Amino acid sequence: MKKYILSISLFALLFGLELRADDQKNTQKEDTLAISLLKASDEARGSVTEGLVWDSQIETVEDGESNTRNFVVKAKDHDAFVEATSPARNKGEIYIFNDRNMWFYKPSLKKPVSISARQKLSGQASNGDIASTHYARDYTPTIEKTELLSGEKFHVLMLKAKSENLTYDMIRYWISDKTKLAARAEFLNLQGKAFKIGEMEYGNLITTAEKKVPFISRLTITDAKYPQNKSTINYKAPHIEQLASSLFNVSNLSR
Amino acid sequence: MKLWILAFRNMGRNLRRTLSTAVAIAAGFIGLVLLSAYIYRTKMGLTTSTVYINHKGHLALFKKDGLEKFAAKPSKYLISREDQEKLQVILDRHPDEIEFTGKYLSGTGLISNSKKSIPFIGLGIEPVTYAKIMHHPDLMRWTPDWIFPETIATSNDLALNPNLISITAMMGELLGKDLPFSQYQGEQKSLQLAAKSYFNDLNANNVELGLRHTTGIALAEDTSLIGSLATFQDLYATDGIQYWALFLKPAASVAGFRQVLAREVKQAGLDLDIESYNGEIWGAYYNGSMSFLYVMGSFFIFLICGAVLLSIVNSTTLGIIERMKEIGTLRAIGFRPKHIQSLFWRENFILSLIAVFSGQVISEIIALIVNFAHFQFEPPGTQGKIQFMLATNWKICLVMALFLLLLNVATTLVVVKKITRPQVIKLLTESGA
């Protein structure tokens, strides 16, 4: 009898350990998948190691008033240089992104001003939205679920900020299983409620050294509470260009 | 007159009781004077702090609903240049009431030393007004702890260099700038302000560190910034102002002038609200603090007056019981009850008068000693320690003295009236105490 009980216990223990190992393997697999999905989707939103240049137009409708602002964005690796081109009153204003830090400069200033990526740039668009996206670097992803949208399979990722100075604390992010492109984002507050909703389109193509990759052409950010308030960022003429590292050196801006 | 002389002589008949009653009245009056001196000093300190240090003026003119809604939609609630010109005409009509005025624009943003930025809540002020405020005699009299000598000495600098800004010591610490700020020269004193302009654009301008101030309010010390109106108008890209503060002459009535001004503003077709420094929202800190003090003061006055009244009732009743036969004799030789009553209230009136006068002298001496001792304390919610000061005011003292005298006479009359009514024979046969 004793032998019988011992055998069953040993079997249960081994079976339990096996199940736990399977769970861990599955979680690791999911984490790896989430990171690879995020890396792939970031590429189409400017996260490339080569220099990338595009024109950005932000159309904002807020409280019944609309305005349009234009920028030239030059991004390389984790840095970005954004220069306002219109309207005339903003011409020459520069935003520099060094890693996760951000500066604002205009020609009349003696020194650049350190600003927050969270601050609103225009309407619903925050400063951090205009430059390239590095969610794989900045956020810890976990796969929440998969779901079908218009017959296409999407992985729904929950992204949690790795540090406090990022544009958003949490993002729920829909990435296509087929194209590896992000189609929708819900920007969440600390309570987990969506306060802005982003929708992406990919009508551009960029040619890197190795291949042609799709590139974002439109990001529409809508206020979750007041949907009539929205900002649309149009990405135009993206192309690879050699960019000197000195372009992103904030010290070069001081007079 | 004979009754007054008789009353004065009667006071010496039982010297010990007369003295103990006088001490009780004097002690009560000292309590009232010192309590009122503390409340009066606090009121004047808070008034000066609210009107001058926090730049609210005795009266402030806002765009209609601007006081509550300016922060949410500043461009909509600005007083335009056109309205300012119309308003100037109205204000020029009142040189007898208005000492000086100041235009203000407040807003939020970031102040940067190029390495890091911290948030500020700023106030743009006309440099001339700033200098006038800093040299105002009320500041030195009532809030000397909240005005630094260096602030007064450098207050004219803003007019010479409108790019100068004034920050608190705590903000300086957050920006890595030590006191005194005058030690910084050239690039070291260069700072930048950044904010959303009224066009919804991010805007920034250069400023120079040079001045220091304190708000007197602990919660405001890590964000308070004062600069010139021009600096703030440039930062927010506007030529409008948020409010126009009026600093009135001491003789002017704030409430009365407010009514006059409201009428004239309406006649001129201007859509403006007029707020006073002690208003519920505009002067919330003043209002809240004073309401608390008044409630506390009323409670103490009730206790003190109660104790004095009991003492009067006690000594008068004892005096009457002791003097039953005397009262009977006086009635027998032709004194009427009202004469007896007059005699008693006159006795207590003279006693109260002497006690109140002595109490006033002792209170002044105590106030002098306390003020001379420079006791420091930190009232809740204020920034740093301030001197515990007592400021007696002759008008308040006079009102309290009259009140106490009236109360004592009334109490005496009530007590005496009951006892002088019985028949003369009954009074003469009373054994007394």
Describe this structure in words.
- The complex is a heterodimer of chains A (255) and B (433).
- Chain A is α+β, with helices and mostly antiparallel strands and 255 residues long.
- Chain A has a single domain (43-253), classed as outer membrane lipoprotein receptor (LolB), chain A, CATH 2.50.20.
- Chain A is built from 3 helices and 17 strands.
- In chain A, strands 6-5-4-3-2-1-17-16-13-12-11-10-9 form a 13-stranded antiparallel sheet.
- The radius of gyration of chain A is 22 Å and the shape is elongated.
- Chain B has 2 domains: 2-48 and 300-429, no CATH class; 57-276, no CATH class.
- Chain B has 16 helices and 11 strands.
- Chain B has helices spanning 2-10, 15-53, 66-69, 81-92, 127-134, 137-142, 149-153, 157-160, 169-174, 229-235, 254-267, 284-322, 324-332, 337-373, 394-420, 424-429; strands at 59-63, 98-112, 117-125, 164-167, 190-196, 202-212, 224-228, 243-248, 272-276, 376-377, 386-387.
- In chain B, helix 14 packs antiparallel against helix 15 (394-420).
- At the A-B interface, strand 6 and strand 7 of A face strand 5 and strand 6 of B.
